[in-house]
Amino acid sequence: MRRLFTALLAVAALAACGTPQARVITAKGVGRETPVEPPVEETVRGLTAFGHALLTATASPGANAVLSPLSIGHAYGMARAGAGGRTGPELDEVFGFPVQGPHTSFNALTRQIVTLDGPPPAPTPDVRRDAQESEPAAPIVGVASGLFTQEGLSVRPEFLRTLAAQYGAGVQQVDFTGDAAGVIDAWADRQTAGRIKKMFDQLDPRTRLVIANAVYFRGEWATAFTDPPEENAAFTRADGTAVRTTLMRQVGTFGYASGAGWQAVELRYAKGDLAMWVLLPQAGGSPAGLLAPAVMAEVAAGLRETPVTVAMPRWDFSTALSLQEPLRELGLDGSDYSGIADGAFLGQATHRATITVDEWGTEAAAVTGLAFAIADMGSPETEIRADHPFAFAIVHRPTLTPLFVGQVADPTAED
Length: 415
What we know:
Helix content: 10-25%
Strand content: 25-35%
Pfam families: Serpin
CATH class of the largest domain: Alpha Beta
Distance between the termini: 44 Å
Number of domains: 2
Keywords: Signal
GO molecular function: serine-type endopeptidase inhibitor activity
Structural class: alpha+beta
Number of strands: 15
Family: Belongs to the serpin family.
CATH architecture of the largest domain: 2-Layer Sandwich
Organism: Streptosporangium minutum
Mean pLDDT: 86
CATH topology of the largest domain: Antithrombin, Chain I, domain 2
Low-confidence stretches: 1-19
Radius of gyration: 27 Å
């Protein structure tokens, strides 16, 4: 296996930019494929349902929350390529992955959504455009895949082929007994334009492989909130108490939809196909409930261009989430990833997301990290216990010639 792994891989380059660095290895002769008729719609339906289920399971009604279904699904999609036993079917059920697998869908989705090749550039601090004199910038969307392995670990060739062909991911060899955490954190920092600087709070010392995903978005509103804001406005929290905040305001024509107990407005980002849907329940209603696939489909079908006055607060917050327990509650009990490497099992799963929304637009980033340990294979189930007379033969294996044969009847006897 070690020789096959070495033959399959070829050193491509050192990790670009930042320290510490890792040796990057790519699958030799395996290029990024262009998928033909990938099951994108089914995969997106699954991600939508998963995002609603996870937010419902983890978000307190009184707390801010942000997560990226795309980032989490993308990371677990990569892991699906090496899932063994019951773990694969459980992943399919929890994430709504297609029967033929999610890999070609994620390949196609990133091709459609991503706007840049490589890490996103960091925004210029405290620079605001003049809404009257300058055009809004085009959106920036980045999706990055990372695979970090212990130096010398034998990873299954088929797993590496899938990651190279569908996710464009090579292997970064690191030392999990040394600076691996620093390498992974530097990667997360680089792929999120500095928004997220740490992947794991602390890596389990048994970790020998990490699958990582990063999603980054920056977009300016097609129409900025330039109307005078409403100062000292009351914002009523879920428990009925109120806080004072500033509401951004603008009047214009927007996509608008409404249904039983909810309203929705579509705020488009400039120069692209991206938009934010602001989903507003009636007072006392559940915001997370509006992310249910049926409601999202109703919003999509119901949006009509309508004169609307929009007033909403700025927001800036982050979420850090350990994924294993909530995903267990959603039905993912298996942790067998022996299709990645012998004895591989998922030891840690983390997700971090952050978002900033103001008068000019939105910046958001997310990372997902899956840390795998290698199980001690333990004692073999089959045992040969030579505690009674036995025979032996010394043979030349190519010809099976018996050089010596004999039996041991009493190992304590000398003659």
